[in-house]
């Protein structure tokens, strides 16, 4: 989770959903615990509403949204320093039905500093759009599939020179990889059709030194895949009996995943990874069932695993053993995920309250800050600033953007 710093010194540290490798961890300094909207460096109205989270590269902040009245899907690039618009690209988008808590714009983009990759979903297909960082179209690929009745919500990642997409749907499930330069499909693997997953994968190196991508889904459990071929290197199947929405996470060498439903029955599994070179299979390390998140993804730091449930129950777990250190309630309901900054966790509630607590072995509430507008997004951080997306606005908080 090293940060990349260019000549300007600007940290390019939030290139995908939940930042570096989906960890939710930032090295930003000086982000205040207590604030109001008036304390923001800037706050701008976005051209489209949505639940997607912002991503950052250098002096650029990228965010997507939908304008239902105009029938447009919009990608915006804002200047990190003052929130002014650098460019915007739009394309026609017909309204379609989603789950009442979802939105037509809920997929978070990904960038590698050369291109921005965005997923646009509609009934019948997922389309990947690649733009350069000045907004010029590079390539586009459409994958036909029966998109879940919940709507879209899968987010891509860029791994090396490859764009990875997990299309686990109720039907016609697949994994796919594209050449980042050309968009050429390098491989596409059909998957078991189970309940749709919305989990974003992460990179991982297993105990044998084999590098790959970790995917979570109801149909396959936790899967380790060779990104160059799509071959499954090892898999712990049968561990999820419901859909997997939270994203792949690594904690103390264990692979973490959750499953659940709107009516409950959520649980977490921690899997000891297999070893591709040695032929060793993965195994279940432990399972947790009490107040486990359905949508939010946890944060693993300093031997602790912090789980933030949809209902506002926060649990601190000793990651190696699964022992619960504490479990406490905070204010709100949550579909965004927490992020770690200077020993604190920040998470935005559905009503737009930013709850801040200490990331420690002892529960310590710090602050609740009102953004004044609903949000289902996850904060992004870069250049010692935090970027908070609400339904129709984006604001910047913290020190001077370099």
Describe, in plain words, how this protein is organized in 3D.
Residues 1-11 have low confidence and may be disordered. With 402 residues, the chain is mostly beta strands. The protein is built from no helices and 33 strands. It has a single domain (20-398), classed as YVTN repeat-like/Quinoprotein amine dehydrogenase (Methylamine Dehydrogenase, Chain H).
In short:
This protein is mainly beta. Helix content is 0%, strand content 44%. The chain is built from no helices and 33 strands.
Provide the CATH topology.
Answer: Methylamine Dehydrogenase, Chain H
Oligomer: single chain
What's the architecture in CATH terms? 7 Propeller
Q: How many domains in all?
A: 1
Strand percentage lies at 35-45%
Structural class: mainly beta
Sheet having the most strands: 5 strands, mixed
Shape summary: globular
Number of strands: 33
Helical stretch tally: 0
Strand order of the largest sheet: 1-27-28-29-30
CATH C-level category: Mainly Beta
Relevant CATH superfamily: YVTN repeat-like/Quinoprotein amine dehydrogenase
Q: Unreliable segments (pLDDT under 50, ≥5 consecutive)?
A: 1-11
**Overall pLDDT:** 93
Which percent range fits the helix content? Answer: under 10%
Rg, Å, rounded: 19 Å
End-to-end distance, in Å?
21 Å
